[in-house]
């Protein structure tokens, strides 16, 4: 009978560790040295050629070329070291990398969680009452931890961190709890109980919030747009004002004038060309703007005027480079609005439906509204039902952004599979749609009753009261279009 004596635990451990040790290579030392020299020489020559051709040190080739060099000089007989693999693979990868749709980014963002201090602040409060037959107590505690994130923006080509293009933010994570206990005694018998409520904020969510905040800040500094408008913070914060001051001081005079002309045009104060030249027309328009915005009406382009314009909600949306629809319209668009003789487009809004500008619907059919501003604008649309109730249909929970690009059509409801329906349930012309366009974000200036949930009736509102609310916004340039809907019995419409 053959039997195997079980190995001891140390013997089994030694065998296991021995399997982790690399096996000796069946290659002579001379071949190893020659392979190392060949691989190093190949990488050096490739690096010198890349530097001569591109004019800069290119380190991105080391990973793929290093792997190829190890295969070519270390195991030349391997199938992966053959010409069809080495040359063909790298050539194919290079062709894919330089094809027209490939764009090397100009900048990159790097960062890290630089601080995680737990329990930097601890506070405990408690009180109790003790009687011969009863004990009662309550306590409250709070622990504060701090998380910090630092981000920097760098250039891809130079591998250098851009000075001033950084963000450093911290957030406090709070853990709190409340507890109470009570106990009683009757003779030698006793009863006690404890109730506790604890609430703790998560570190993971804190880090995600810090990353979002820091990325917005870093990219805002890089592109010179008022990033603080995205954060819902106090616009009068001294930090933001100092940042804007730096932008203003480093901006050339003609660019300052061009920026002011663009804002004055979008707000209806200026109808001349965007030239970057400070002329009489620009000065008069700037003076009117200053007078309406509680500034000294001097007409001069100074920092107070610049910061007032920069702090308006609509300025960020009109930042250069913003293209394409963001309102979820999905429409094909309609003809471009006509321009004035001087070539400048005035604010207007075109209102249409899926049945044209003079629609006629059968009873029970659904409505699709198509709205299009002539310039970049903030759009608000309201629907009046057959009973006179009014609801906001744009922006809505499915199309949350009120900003619409110039000549970009928005469909309400959006998309092929409509997330909601506007059904026409009453014969006649009692139902209507009204849209309001403005170059400024005026939604925050509306009465509180009009800031309720979308797609729900606004209490005691009619289209006329909604129109009056928009027209009463101080200093706002509002363009209004209304479309009455005619609904006929099912048998009255033919196609």
Describe the structure.
By secondary structure, this protein is of the alpha+beta class. It has four domains: about 25-95, no CATH class; about 105-205, ABC-type transport auxiliary lipoprotein component (Rossmann fold); about 225-315, Orthogonal Bundle (Muramoyl-pentapeptide Carboxypeptidase, domain 1); about 350-490, Immunoglobulin-like, CATH 2.60.40. Helix content is about 30%, strand content about 25%. The chain has helices at about 10-20, 30-55, 60-75, 85-95, 205-225, 240-250, 255-265, 280-290, 305-310, 315, 465-470; strands at about 105-130, 135-155, 160-185, 190-200, 350-355, 360, 370-375, 375-385, 390-395, 405, 410, 430-440, 480-485, 485-490. Strands 8, 9, 10, 12 and 13 form a five-stranded antiparallel beta sheet that branches. It has a four-stranded antiparallel beta sheet with strand order 1-2-3-4. Strands 5-7-11 form a three-stranded antiparallel beta sheet, with no helix packed on it. Helix 2 (about 30-55) runs antiparallel to helix 3, helix 6 packs across helix 9 (about 305-310) and helix 7 (about 255-265) packs across helix 8. About 20% of the residues are buried.
